[in-house]
Amino acid sequence: MMFSYATHLSCPKCGAIYGIDRVNQLCRCGSPLLARYDLEALRKTWKRDDMRGRPNHLWRYHELLPVRQPAHVVSLGEGMTPLLPLPQLGKDMAISRLLMKDEGVIPTGTFKARGAAVGVSKAKELGVKELAMPTNGNAGAAWSLYAARAGIQCHVVMPVDAPMITRNECAISGAHLSLVDGLISDAGHIVAQGIKELHWYDASTLKEPYRIEGKKTMGLEIAEQLEWNLPDVIIYPTGGGVGLIGIYKALSELRDLGWVRDQLPRLVSVQAEGCAPIAKAWEEKKQTSDFWNDASTVAFGINVPKALGDFLVLDAIYRTAGCALAVDDHSILQEQKRIAQMEGAFVCPEGAAAFVAARRLRQNGWIKEGETVVVLNTGAGIKYPDTVRTNPPLLQPGEPLPVFQSGDPQPLKPS
Ligand SMILES: *Cc1c(COP(=O)(O)O)cnc(C)c1O
Ligand SMILES: [Zn+2]
Questions:
Q1: What is the pLDDT, as a whole number, of residue 1?
Q2: Mean pLDDT of the chain
Q3: What confidence tens digit (pLDDT) does each residue in 179-222 have?
Q4: CATH number for the 83-108+213-388 domain, one of 3.40.50.2300, 3.40.50.1100, 3.30.1300.10, 3.40.50.10320?
Q5: Residues 6+ apart with CB under 8 A from 143
Q6: What is the radius of gyration, based on Cα positions, of the chain?
Q7: Distance from the CA of 363 to the center of ligand 1, in angstroms?
Q8: Which ligand 1 atom is nearest residue 138's CA?
């Protein structure tokens, strides 16, 4: 067995083919490139049972990842996050089997670690010394830390409003960090200019083909954790859409290997009402999205006004008979609180948005009685402390414990 069965990169738009052993970014036609594997050969030699006893991180799927040499793997132990049943919340939503894929318990606190682990490893394998990227915070944090481990210099530009902790993660790992008084799209223009002049590796979302390979391991894990019986629905909070495209790619590869059934889960893309280009495009039955003006939401990781891979996200939704919808910030914060109080899980606002979508889709009958629903919580709530405001009483030493009404939660109001 080889470590990786990666063969080449191919363009999902024009079909052009590129090598996987040298630096390639976008296709000549402007489309992202996707990594391809020798699934024929793998189908003959690789069996589901071979997965038993492998280490509990995403490199357990190394055959379906693009890194050729084990020595190039840069890992902080990421992957194999819990697929947690949420019985109370499920009951509250009338979803009989509700599962949360919890990405809050991964290095750097968001699933961006998966993309960074595989993206940085492959960059190292390709001999990259400096890379640059725009970010809404979490990706920059993850790439900075993994790049530090790989000995690669990282340049990051993020909006001034991005969660404060992500700045600190970039700074402490020695990345060169700049802020922009604007959106991730503005950060993108600045990075593009820098790359043109300084010839750094462009690690922007989907401008290098390997971040998606890391994110696809969420799909591989969901399948394996359900013993290769796919759920009916997978719900994903969508910004650049890489996770959703990745999950679709993973499940398609597993299907081609004969490891899962032909009918894939219905994929649901969730956005915030303040930034919903994909949801709008889906409603209008379009193949691509339009730039969303004045984008704004508490769910910062999905505040992406125009995604380079929008056509791939929409394609995955159409092909799986999925759907896309937008939810409002107030509902997101309410749901976040409900999940903490019912299940003890402090999810990030993006994850909470996906749960709001689950509730709505069950209410309107799109999710049917008895279906198995997997919701992605893409990160830890503790990375966004400002979404919660508390005002507990301040006691002097010796003062008696105040009496709370039973079932009365701490006063808590969204910011
Ligand atoms: C980046 C991010 C998302 C969106 O991920 P995409 O794959 O780019 O759509 C969702 N949630 C969190 C917490 C994120 O950091
Ligand atoms: Zn092309």
A1: 85
A2: 96
A3: 999 999 999 999 999 999 999 999 999 999 999 999 999 999 99
A4: 3.40.50.1100
A5: 112, 116, 119, 120, 131, 133, 135, 154, 156, 175, 203
A6: 21
A7: 25
A8: 15
